[in-house]
Amino acid sequence: MIFHKIHSLKGEVTVPGDKSISHRAIMLGSLAQGTTEITNFLQGEDCLSTIRCFGQMGIHIENNKDTILVHGKGLHGLRKPDEILDVGNSGTTTRLISGILSATDFEVTLTGDSSIQKRPMGRIITPLTMMGAKIESIKGNGCAPLFITGSKLKGIHYISEVASAQVKSGILLAGLYADGETSITEPYVSRNHTELMFQYFGIDIQTDNTTVTVQPAKEFPASQVVVPGDISSAAYFIVAGLIVPNSEIRIKNVGINPTRDGIIKVCEQMGANITLENITDTNGEPTADIIVRSSELTGTIIEGGIIPTLIDELPIIAILAAVAKGQTVIKDASELKVKESNRIDVMVKNLKLMGVDVEGTEDGMIINGGNTLHGATIDSKLDHRIAMSFAIAALLADGPIEILGAECVNISYPDFYTHLNDLSQ
Ligand SMILES: O=C(O)C1=C[C@@H](OP(=O)(O)O)[C@@H](O)[C@H](O)C1
Ligand SMILES: C=C(OP(=O)(O)O)C(=O)O
């Protein structure tokens, strides 16, 4: 696909439902007793993979697009799938479902696409094994395919080396089945959607700073979940509205949970004109309309505890930094290397092709911004966040940007190009 410079961005956009919350709604709906109704569910390939996996384990899930009905069978209602469970491209599905599969009374093989088969699963195998789970990396390389034998689990207190909501959530889901309390401490607070949704479904869970503790669950009833818009999808339009001259856009109904809103803080730190309106609460998750206007931006330092709150936004933040005047330093973000692609290497390589002064480091990037962006051919490596980031960079480039593998946006935002086109003037 080829993208060109535009004059401005104007109008309103409603981004799709939050990916993290959509996954969790299917999982908890499947484990609840009765029918959970989910609205504004993300119809992206990753969340459809979660639906497919629970369907294979006997959960009847009606996908009527506007509403999803999950006919939950309670905590012990899953049945052994006839075939391998395929998570597609979704790390979230893999790590969260592993926590549940650890506690069943059957064996299962879990795998995914070539990207998933390179992503580290030791971080979930280690704590789940401490709980009594039996998980084997079939190729012995700490990655999927995984062979999981459901077992009796015990509660542990786990200190995680990474601030990862996927690790935390896998452990908390296993903790529902443990014989005692389970807790996890992480170096920084990662997104807390699992905690909020456990609470919403009536599960006993407590958070104390960086430690989360869950009690063994009793059966809990189905509920209704309204999924807020995904701030990680809104991020592309936040940045586009800031960097393209004469722009003003409203992004409606976006989740602004403080464990996810690092992008707003960083933009403000860089001088962005951003306002939040219609702030409200959607089943425990704060949401708002985000209004962005073109702004003069300056570089900044992004490091430490803010990193987990904007981890998926770092590729588009790198584009913002390439346009801002002065230097932006991104540190403490080595997790970027183990996402759908090595997002440090892929961003640095492609930004260089556009003429950006950028250097990759062990745990981030140093970007000297403010120079003209040039046309180039960008290989997305089939990473949705990379494809969307460069589609936004193209809006300012002095020549066409060709994106290879552009269709990978279907993972998290199938209507992305249509929405971008609708806002473009
Ligand atoms: O829990 C989640 O829903 C997610 C957690 C993050 O991963 P890590 O927990 O591995 O950092 C994020 O990158 C991913 O897109 C979604
Ligand atoms: C890292 C991501 O997702 P996952 O880990 O679920 O594949 C992402 O969406 O950027």
TrEMBL record:
Xref: PROSITE patterns: EPSP_SYNTHASE_1, EPSP_SYNTHASE_2
Entries under InterPro entries matching the protein: Enolpyruvate_Tfrase_dom (IPR001986), Enolpyruvate_Tfrase_sf (IPR036968), EPSP_synthase (IPR006264), EPSP_synthase_CS (IPR023193), RNA3'P_cycl/enolpyr_Trfase_a/b (IPR013792)
Localization, UniProt: Cytoplasm
Amino-acid biosynthesis as UniProt keyword: yes
Residues annotated as binding phosphoenolpyruvate: 19, 91, 119, 166, 343, 385
Catalytic reactions on record: 3-phosphoshikimate + phosphoenolpyruvate = 5-O-(1-carboxyvinyl)-3-phosphoshikimate + phosphate
Gene3D superfamilies, per database record: Enolpyruvate transferase domain
Active site positions, chain numbering: 312
The EC number(s) this enzyme carries: 2.5.1.19
Record-listed 3-phosphoshikimate binding positions: 19-20, 24, 164, 166, 312, 339
Known function: Catalyzes the transfer of the enolpyruvyl moiety of phosphoenolpyruvate (PEP) to the 5-hydroxyl of shikimate-3-phosphate (S3P) to produce enolpyruvyl shikimate-3-phosphate and inorganic phosphate.
Protein name: 3-phosphoshikimate 1-carboxyvinyltransferase
UniProt source species: Mobilisporobacter senegalensis
